[in-house]
Design goal:
Length: 145
């Protein structure tokens, strides 16, 4: 078996894994959506659960399929046409990932820090008054004010 044949097999394995991730993820997403609907009887919540979970699965599946295309393009058939096709695929995947992530998170990636975690802590720190501990005494013996 030549190197090109081996890399073609590796790319095929990546494609199979990507397809399995998409199919398995769809099944898990449907199960999560069904569970949310049965638990709350809220169709809108069930839809959001299904949409968000399957959106993440699509992102993961696309990453794996792009890896297959990358292996095939670089190791098996490094022609200008295959490189251009890979570039278009990566561009499409990037646009899809961006739009899916924005829909899943509900906020653009560059605004995410302002709405979660560190962004909220920083916002709270900016708006809060300086911390004063009444048990701390200044050098002159008076409590700190």
């Amino acid at each position: 078996m030549t190197f090109a044949e081996l890399m073609d097999r590796v790319a095929q394995v990546f494609e199979v894994i990507g397809a399995l991730v998409l199919f398995g993820g769809l099944m898990v997403s449907v199960a999560l959506g069904t569970h949310a609907f049965r638990r709350t009887a809220d169709g809108a919540l069930a839809y959001r659960v299904l949409r968000q979970s399957f959106g993440g699965v699509i992102l993961l599946g696309l990453e794996i399929l792009v890896a297959a295309d990358l292996v095939r393009t670089v190791a098996v058939a490094p022609t200008m046409e295959s490189v251009l096709v890979l570039g278009v695929i990566v561009l499409i995947r990037t646009v899809l990932s961006f739009s899916l992530e924005t829909e899943i998170e509900g906020v653009a990636p560059w605004r995410r820090a302002a709405t979660t975690g560190v962004g909220r802590i920083a916002q709270a720190a900016r708006s809060a008054a300086p911390f004063e501990d009444p048990t701390v005494r200044r050098r002159d013996g008076d409590p700190a004010r």
